[in-house]
Amino acid sequence: MKKNILSILLMCSIITITTYAQDTESSALEISGSADVYWKYDFAKQTNISTYFTEDHNSISLGMLDLALKKSTGKASFVGEISFGPRGQYRSILNGDENPNNSDNSFHIQNLYASYAFTEKLSMTAGFMGTFIGYEVISPSANFHYSTSYLFGAGPFQNAGIKANYVFSDKISGMIGLFNDWNNYQDFNGVSHFGAQLGITPDDNSSIYLNFLTGSSEGGELNYTSGTLVDLVASYGFSEKFALGLNAADYTLKSDGGYTGVALYPKYSINDNIQLGVRGEYFKIKDVTGIDGDTKTTVTLSANLKHGGLTFIPEFRLDNSKQKEFFKDDFITPTKNACQFSAALVYTF
Questions:
Q1: Paired residues of 91 in beta bridges
Q2: What is the C-alpha separation between 55 and 46, in angstroms, rounded?
Q3: Are 158 and 183 in contact (CB under 8 A)?
Q4: Is pLDDT above 80 for 135?
Q5: Are 101 and 117 in contact (CB under 8 A)?
Q6: pLDDT tens by residue, 147-185
């Protein structure tokens, strides 16, 4: 009898030790990132198109050096990502001062969060995370076009908070979360926003994400981040060579105003190393009492020429503004149109 009990206890111990070892199995530290530089020429000989990251006219300029670390131990995982350079600093999220000459403005945390998978279906993540809103991101290695859309510039860029992810099936997933105010890694006014996402992947060639973010920030109804944002991101691969992306969003402030917009991203692959793509965008600032909001339409034509981890991106962009927000090359005369050409090098590792 005692031998049987000892045998059972020994077996249980072996199972427990084996299970613990499996749950705490540690993966190798993953290191990834990117680096980019660009040159842009604005045909008005000034910075006319004020979207993010390509402001400098006729200059060889830095984008950013991005470094990401990822580590998993059993069901727990951690991601830390920092960036150095203008694209990851004062031209995305401020880290104290938007002045590029400030010596304290040296780097910015893009991601810093931990996740735990309670089951194969349920996981939770907490920390400072790249936003779930929108089609484009800060890092150029994840975008096809080097310049960014007005929808991207409207934000948010990052969300600090806690979220739960649940996989209902191999085709449907969902997320709900509580977050700080937009882009704030700390918010002494308290958690102020609720977000949710529904993801649908009918097959390997298509995906649909419906995103929702709402809340009230310090300053009440007049604050730009006090409102409700509904965002749709979708993609469909018609063939191995042709794919189409879509981003549509509507943001309504608790006071008057907000924005609405839609962008289409057709892309054609000539071969594995040469791709051509277009971004067509409509973006409107909503009217407020006594003021008509501006409307912008843009067409951006880009090529991706790849060799190993290096991508060369020549790009031509034409913007049109309803309210003549651009200027001619005399720096005085307002005009509806602005045009620029840029060339960027992006290395991903």
A1: none
A2: 9
A3: yes
A4: yes
A5: no
A6: 999 999 998 998 999 999 999 999 999 999 999 988 877
Would you give the distance in Å from CA 44 to the centre of its chain? Answer: 30
Residue 142 DSSP SS3: helix
* Region of residue 22 (left: phi > 0; alpha: psi -120 to 50; beta: else): alpha
pLDDT of residue 112: 95
Q: Tell me the two tokens of residue 236.
A: 């469909």
Residue 106 pLDDT grade (very low, low, confident, very high; cuts 50, 70, 90): low
Q: What is the DSSP string of 176-225?
A: EEEE-STT-S--TT---EEEEEEEEEEETTEEEEEEEEEE--TTGGGSTT
Per the CB < 8 A criterion, the answer to whether 263 and 281 are in contact is yes
How far does CA 126 lie from the centroid of its chain? 17
Q: Both tokens of residue 150?
A: 């007005």
Summarize pLDDT for 314-334 with one digit per residue, the tens: 999 999 999 988 889 888 899
Q: What is the DSSP string of 32-85?
A: EEEEEEEEEEETTSS-----TT---SSSEEEEEEEEEEEEEETTEEEEEEEEES
142, 275 Cβ separation under 8 angstroms: no
pLDDT, the chain, mean: 87
Amino acid (one-letter) located at 77? S
Q: DSSP of 228-241, one letter per residue?
A: EEEEEEEEEESSSS
Helix (H, G, I), strand (E, B) or coil at 293: coil
Query: What pTM value is reported for the model?
Result: 0.85
